[in-house]
Design goal:
By secondary structure, the protein is an all-alpha fold. It is about 85% helix and about 0% strand.
């Protein structure tokens, strides 16, 4: 269930970011995304908070920096390209997260990961291909 909610949230984030990009610049979207995230986490966080050890603060700082950079770059990408154009790149997250889990955490990759990941990636690539075909058809019809 968590995966379904996360997927819905990610899709909603992409669509809303693309919509807002028509009116606001990337920095404004980045600011308000951060404010919204801070409010939500402030409401939820106290129920699940675990104290962070002193030696872990450096890694936490690096995590925050890379997450901020990733969100800013995603907002900037959605500002200049359609969501369907960027989706194949987002599908690489499956590949990278599997590799990181395998290499850094010695996770065992079972058949379900390959089957599920394959279905998701194939579906995304098909949607990308289909969108390109529709654009070609539309351009041919408009040029006549």
């Amino acid at each position: 269930m968590i995966a379904v909610v996360a997927t819905f949230g990610f899709a909603t984030y992409n669509v809303l970011t693309r919509y807002v990009a028509k009116k606001d610049d990337a920095v404004t979207s980045f600011f308000w995304t951060g404010i919204a995230g801070a409010i939500v986490i402030t409401l939820i966080g106290p129920f699940f908070w675990t104290p962070i050890l002193f030696q872990d603060w450096g890694m936490m700082f690096m995590l925050c920096l890379t997450a901020m950079l990733a969100h800013l770059l995603m907002i900037m990408a959605l500002d200049v390209a359609e969501t369907t154009t960027l989706q194949p790149f987002a599908l690489l997250q499956i590949v990278y997260s599997t590799l990181i889990g395998l290499i850094l955490f010695q996770e065992i990759v079972d058949l379900h990961v390959f089957i599920g990941g394959g279905i998701i990636i194939a579906s995304g690539l098909f949607a990308f291909w289909r969108e390109a075909q529709v654009k070609k058809t539309d351009q041919l019809l408009l040029s006549k």
